[in-house]
Amino acid sequence: MRNTGKRPHEKLLEIMNVGTTLTPAEINAHVGNGDYASKHVWFLGKLGFTFDIVKDGRTVTSYTMTAEPANAAEIRNPAPKAAKVKAPKVAKAPKAKAAKTVKVAAPKTEKTTKTKVRVSKQTPIKKAARDILKDKADAQADALLAELGMRNGGEVRGGSYSVDPDWDALDGIDPMALINHEV
Fold this sequence. Notes:
This protein is α+β, with helices and mostly antiparallel strands. It contains six helices and five strands, in the order H-E-H-H-E-E-H-H-E-E-H.
């Protein structure tokens, strides 16, 4: 079926009026874009048309239109779309030609040689400065840890940092007496 420019529900309204009963096969044959009769009827229902649907089990056997909305004539024959009107192209005014310029040759000078700065000479200086800063930070951290009692002579006690190394000491308390509530 050739494209008439109408939407499927508009094609369905060509053959369906109030009181008309059609089968899904008749609807599909007229609209001509596949087995979508229920979709077309559903869409018309959204627009305000009402239908009685007769089923045999789960299969729809017929659709009967029972009522139309107030704007049914507008839905059946939509207003044609207005064609877009393009504004006429306006020719641009020709550009005025610029006056010719005379090129003046620059005085020739002797070429100067550029000195290249090598990054490799600066890199050891930057590394040395970074190492000095690291060493200062490590020394400050060691002093702070020693002050808190977390280091003994530059070595970490217990293999890790700890604020209270004896936090789990019982100091003369019998654990079994604690468990048996005898303390």
